[in-house]
Structures are given as structure tokens and as C-alpha cells.
Amino acid sequence: MVSSKSYDLVIVGGGIIGCATAMLVKRTLPASTRIALVEKEHEVGYHQSGRNSGVVHMGLYYKPNSLKAKLCLEGALEAFSYFKANGIPYKKCGKLVIAVKDGELSKLDDLYKNSLQNSVPEVRVLENVQEIKKIEPNCEGVSAIYSPHTSIVDWKVVTKSFELSFLKTGGETFKNFELTALNKFSSFNEKFPIVLKSKSGQTIKSRYVLTCCGLYSDRIAKLSGSSSDPKIVPVRGEYLSLPLHVAKDLVSANIYPVPDPKFPFLGVHFTPRMDGSIWLGPNAVLASHREGYSYCDVNLQDTLEMLSYPGFQKLATNYTFKGLDELASSLFINRQIKNLQQYVPKLPASQVTRISAGVRAQALNRDGSLVDDFVFDSDAVGSNQQCRILHVRNAPSPGATSSLAIAKYLFAKMKTSFVDLV
Ligand SMILES: Cc1cc2nc3c(=O)[nH]c(=O)nc-3n(C[C@H](O)[C@H](O)[C@H](O)COP(=O)(O)OP(=O)(O)OC[C@H]3O[C@@H](n4cnc5c(N)ncnc54)[C@H](O)[C@@H]3O)c2cc1C
User: Fold this and answer.
1) Residue 407 needs a FRET pair 20 to 30 A away by CA distance; which of 69, 383, 394, 413 works?
2) What would the DSSP string read from start to end of 386-416?
3) With 90 as the cut, is the pLDDT of residue 190 above it?
């Protein structure tokens, strides 16, 4: 039972971003700084951080000079050093983005130019099918972009390793602590002006708070008086799988389609897994529960909140066709398999099985536009109000890849915003 313990900093949310930041801040500040991490589940990495494609992205897609472009590459390089130093298994299997028809070539060229602007290491164009086959003998296509440093890892293992490092340096973790209230007292002589309450009635006091709550980032930010915009819309990404004996001779790199720039996701792809199997996916279907990992998971509050949000109504109108298309491919997986066979004709439909899913926290503006970049904000509304709470509002893919760079970015923000923490 946690009973009114007091900390200098409490981090809410034990996903990869909360754990990376907890580890970095605890390691950097004086040992006497008391830091706690609270997580509503029984373990860290239970949601997005433990249910994703496991790719270490190198930053091909992101808008040049955006936070995503900067923090993805920086985060990937930091992640590789961390994996080596901490014995975390990963594979540098590379990635191909393949155009299968001439009509896709100009989009592929734009993507290549974008990846050069983002300084993706050693990225190059494969001009024809022969060049593609030198890398992936079972792939077809008219041209491709090859990123040799794109890798795979199990991000849940990484999240748990961050938590362990945090604990080893004297940090404390409270599991099964679901934050339901965040009260701030403005009295100057209040040493710990923030009181965090959990659903089961536990309380913790703190001088400063950072929230990294993924699928609930909007609701948690609202608890501290921040705007409820952007709103989180849950978008499920379902995976199919190929067994080891088929996977081992099929492809060894990540194989992606040329993305549709109007759509925020990368398209269903082949992702080799650390256990030697291959995952196909993820697709993108609307979920009716923020933690809705299957069609059976329905939550009335989540559904009503989403349907009544003006931004969602505009989004639904703009993406009706795409949404129905994704739904049809989710229900009838042969559509997805046929699509994937354009890239790898030998993909054996009879060996494909449905497996797990993840749910993306897709941030959405009131005007219906999708929030693309990482977004951070704070509880400080007026310029003379002291900032006590920082929020991670939007950390979609490549959030796992970027986690160590996001942690550095957040620490720099703490140094300027949390006046007497550092
Ligand atoms: C299908 C899918 C595929 C992806 N593929 C990749 C990929 O290949 N590479 C990549 O880099 N990124 C990928 N991503 C993105 C990546 O997984 C996320 O960017 C990253 O995990 C975000 O981490 P997070 O810590 O912000 O969120 P989360 O991992 O969701 O963590 C948030 C945590 O907050 C906790 N929490 C929420 N509310 C409360 C509360 N009230 N009290 C206490 N705790 C609370 C939750 O339980 C959760 O543990 C993918 C995501 C998905 C869904």
C-alpha cells in the first residue's frame, strides 16, 4: 500500500517513454533526488510499447526538421548503443520500400529525397528488380529504397530493461496505480504541492509530475487543467503471422509498400521478428475501446466520447472510403494477403494465421486534422504561472525508436520548466 509518500518527481505511465525518461533523469540528477514511476497495469510496457512491430526506424518518412525526423535518428543511434551496452538482442536486417508499379515511382522518389534530407544513413535506390533480388531474392518490384541500418528488436524487453536500470539507481515503481486525480495546491509553503490519487484510493505527493500516458494522454492532461485537445482516437493495428519454417526462407528484411502520403500509417508490411517468425501488418481499423485489442473489446465511454468529438466527425467523413477498405481487409484477410503477394509472390496464403494486435494512440485536432508530430505541453497556462506538470500528448510511431532521444528532450524541458528540480 502506497500511503502519501513524497517525491521530487513522479512520472505517470510505464510505457517506453515513461521508463526511458525515468531512467535518464534518475541517472543524471543527484542520487538524493526522489523519483517514482507509477503504472496502472501489473507490469511496464503492457500497451503500445509491448504491442508494436518491433522496428528500429531510421527516419525515412518524417517531415524534415520535425521533431520526429530529429528524434527518430538520434533515438535509433542511442538505442543501438544501449542495446550493445546492455546485451539486448537486436538484428540489423535492413528495410526495403518497394514500388510494384510505375505509377508509384514519383512517390518513391519523393520519399528518397525526404530520407536524404533526414540524413538516413547509407540509404540508396535499387533501380530495378535485379537489384532488389540481390537483397531479397523472393521480392518483386520495379524500384525500391533500401535502408540497410533499419533493425528489429523487442521493444517490451527494452522497456523492461529501462525500468530495471531506473530501479537499480534508486528509483521506485508503483504498479497497479491508476491515476484518477491530480490536485495542485498553490500555497508557497507547500513543499509537495501535487497530490496524485489512484483509483484504489492510494495517494502520492510530488513536487513535479511528468505524464506519459499513451492512449489516455488527453484525459490525464485534462486532470491537471490542460486542454483536452488534441483528442486520442484508438486505431487498432492487427497482425497476421507466418510460422518459423516458412519465414526462414521467405524474406529477411522489413518489406514496406510505398506509403500513401494522405494517410498517417505506413501500410501493411512484412516484419521479421526476433524469434525468426514474420509478422504481416499492422492494418489500421478504428477501435471502440482505447485498449480494444479485438472486435469484442467495446467501451461505451470511449465510443461516445469519440463519436461526439467534432474532429472525429470530420475525420470519419474524410476517410470513409479508406476506413471501409481497411475494415474489409481486416475481416477478409485474403485481401491483405493478395496485396502482400504483389511484393512476395511466394507468400503461402495457407500458412498465414491471425495473431495479436496493438492499438495506436492517434491524436486528432478539433478541426479533424491528424496530429503528425510528437507533441508535449504543460500545466502552465499564464506566463507568470510556475510550471509543475509536463505532458507527453502525442508520441506515435516512431515513439519507441525515439524513446531515448525523447527522454533527453523532456529532461531539457524539465531543466527550463521545473525551476528547482535540477
Ligand atoms: C501497432 C503499433 C505498431 C508500432 N510499431 C512501431 C515500431 O515498429 N517502431 C516504433 O518505433 N514505434 C512503433 N509504434 C509506436 C510505439 O509503440 C509508441 O510510439 C510507443 O510505444 C509510445 O510509448 P508510450 O510510453 O508513450 O505509450 P504506452 O506504451 O502506451 O505507455 C503508456 C502507459 O501509460 C499507462 N497509463 C495510462 N493511463 C494511466 C493512468 N491513469 N495511470 C497510470 N498509468 C497509466 C498505460 O498503462 C501505459 O503503460 C507502434 C505502435 C503501435 C500501436
Assistant:
1) 383
2) PP-EEEEEE--TTTTTTHHHHHHHHHHHHHH
3) no
